[in-house]
Amino acid sequence: MLGLLALGLTSVMIYTLVKNALIGKQLTSHDTYLGTVELLVPVTQDSHFFMKEWQDSLANFHSQPAQLKIHFLIEGHRPEAHDWSSLHDRIPFVEVHHFLTKPESVESATWMIDQVKLKVKGQVVVIGDPEIVPTEDAFISLSKIVTDKNKPYFALPQTARLNVLGEAIAVLNPNLAFASVFGFRRIRKNISHPLMGLTHGWMGMDFKTFEALNFGDYRIPSWKHALSYQWDRENLTYLLAFGEKNLIRYYNNDVKSQLLEMKANWKYLFDKVDRNGLWLFLVALFLWSFPVLCFFTHPYWSLASLGLLIFYRFFSKIVFQESWLALVLHLVGCLAWIGTLGWIGVEALKQKYGSKTSA
After folding, report:
1. Cα–Cα 20 to 30 A to 292, which of 52, 108, 144, 255?
2. pTM of the full predicted structure?
3. CA 232 to CA 83: how far, in whole Å?
4. Euclidean distance between the first and the last CA atom of the chain, given in angstroms as a whole number
5. Contact 133, 57 (CB under 8 A)
6. Residue 88 has what pLDDT?
7. Are 24 and 100 in contact (CB under 8 A)?
8. What is the reported pLDDT for 190?
C-alpha cells in the first residue's frame, strides 16, 4: 500500500511540474520594459547574503536610478556593514536601509518592508530573497510580464552550479517541491501557501497591489507566506514564472558549510515555519528518497519509484537548468537532507534526556 501511494504521489508531482513548466512564464533577455521598477530585499539575521556575487552582477547593470531602484533592508549589526556603504556609493540605484532595532512584537522582514513602503514609487514592485542574485534582464522581463498580464508573478530561481555535490544537495529544495504542487486551486490554502514560507523567489506586482499590502495584521516570519495569506483572503491570485539563468540562488560552496547551513535551516523550519508547509516538504523529501528508505522493505516498489524519479528529475532539469551530474547524485542529495534532519533529531534527544540525567 505504501509503495502504491508513493508511486501515485510521485506521478502527481511529475504531472504538476510539467504543467507548471508549460504554463509558467520564463524570464528572458529578449523582453523590453520602459517603466520603473523597484526591488526590496529584506536581509534578516537568519538570511544568507552573497555580497561578492551581488557586486559582480550589479557591476554589469546599465540602468539609471530614474528607472531602477534596489532597496536592501538590513536588520541589526552585520560584519559587512562597510561593504554595504561602499555598494551604495558606487552604484547610484542601490539604497541601503539599516534597522539596528525593531519592536519585539513584530517579524523582521515584514516590519522592514512596512518601514520603507512610503518611499517606494515604482510602477512595478518586486520583493525578493537575498540568496538570489539577478541579472538586469530579470528586472526587465518580470516587469513586462506583470504589466502585460496585470497579475502578480512569483519567479523561482535556478540553482547555482558551484560544485557537483553541492548542487546535487541544493537542487533538492522547497522550490522544487513548490513547483511540484503549485496549482491545486481548490486546496490552495493547504498546499501552495504553506510552502511559500520555505521557498526562495521573487514576487513581482504592480504598485497598486504593493500599496494595498498590510503585513501588520499577521505574525508570520516569512514575507512570502504573509503576502500569499493576505492575497488568499482577498481572493487575489498570483501566477508562476521561472527565472532560469536570470535569477540564480546561491549557497555555500564548501560542502561542510553547506551541511551546517542545512542543519540550521531544519531548525528554522521546525521553529518558525508553518507546520503544514513543513510536513508537505517532508512528504516531498520522502518521495524523493523512497528508493533508498524502502528498498529492503519494498524492493519492487522502490525500483518502480526510481524509474518515476528518473522522469521527474529529467523534467526538473529542463525547468531549473540543473546539470546532469547533479541528477545522477540525486540519492546522495536525499541522504544529505535526511542526515542533517537526523543530526538535529539526535541533538534534540541528547538535550532533552541529557538534562534529565544531569538533574
Report:
1. 255
2. 0.89
3. 39
4. 45
5. yes
6. 64
7. no
8. 47
Helix axes 2-23, 174-181, angle to 10 degrees: 80
The DSSP-derived string for 272-315 is: HS-HHHHHHHHHHHHHHHHHHHTTTTSHHHHHHHHHHHHHHHHH
Q: Is the pLDDT higher at 202 or at 98?
A: 202
Among 300, 301, 322, 303, CA closest to 313: 322
pLDDT score of 1: 77
Whether 278 and 61 have beta carbons less than 8 Å apart is answered as: no
pLDDT band for 187, please (50, 70, 90 cuts).
Answer: very low
- Residue 136 to residue 64: CA distance in whole angstroms: 11
Split at pLDDT 50, 70, 90, the class of 191 is: low
pLDDT per residue as tens digits for the range 168-185: 888 888 889 888 888 755
Read off the C-alpha cell for 224: 512570502
Is 75 in a helix, a strand, or coil?
strand
Distance (Å, whole) CA 254 – CA 15:
34
- Alpha-carbon span 157 to 115, nearest angstrom: 27
Q: Is the pLDDT of residue 34 over 50?
A: yes
> How many CB atoms within 10 Å of residue 209?
21
Top mean pLDDT of 45-49, 149-153, 188-192, 264-268 is at 149-153
DSSP line for 80-117: THHHHHHHHHH-TTEEEEEE----TTS-HHHHHHHHHG
How many angstroms separate the CA atoms of 14 and 9, rounded? 9
Tell me, what's the pLDDT at 294? Answer: 86
| Strand-strand pairing, 124-128 and 202-206 | antiparallel
What are 41's strand-pairing partners? 72
Cell numbers that stand for 15 in this block:
504531472
Q: Cα-flanking dihedrals φ and ψ of residue 214, to 5°?
A: -140, 85
CA distance 222 to 296: 39
C-alpha cell at 174: 522547497
**C-alpha grid cell for residue 232?**
488568499
Closest CA to 43 of 64, 63, 71: 71
**DSSP state letter for 34:** -
319-331 burial: b if 16+ Cβ within 10 Å, else e: bbbbeeebbebbb
